[in-house]
Amino acid sequence: MLDADRIAPAARRLREALALVAALPPRRKALLAGAGVVLLGAAALVALRAGVSDTVGEVRVVRGPLRITVAVSGLLAPARAESYGPEIAGVELKVVELAPEGSWVKPGALLVRFDDGPFRRELEAARSRLVQTSGEAEQARQALRALLATQRSERLEAEAGLARAELDLSTFVNGTAPLEIQQSAAAVERGAREAEEARQKLEGLAPFAEKGYVSRDELRAAERRATEAQADLVLARQRHRTLAQFTHPQLLAQKQQELASRRAALKVVTEKTSAQAAQSKAAADLADARAAEAARAVADVERRVALCTVTARSPGLVVHREIFEKGGEKRRVRVGDAVFAGQPVLDLPDLSEMLVETRVKEGEIHRVAAGQKAEVRLEAFPDETFAATVLRLGALTAGDRGEARTFPLVLRLAKADPRLRPGMTAQALVVAGEVADALQVPVDAVRYEGEKAVCTVKTVTGSETRPVTTGRSNAFFVEVRQGLSEGDVVLLSR
Question: Which residues constitute the domain of residue 350?
Answer without folding.
Answer: 4-84+345-491
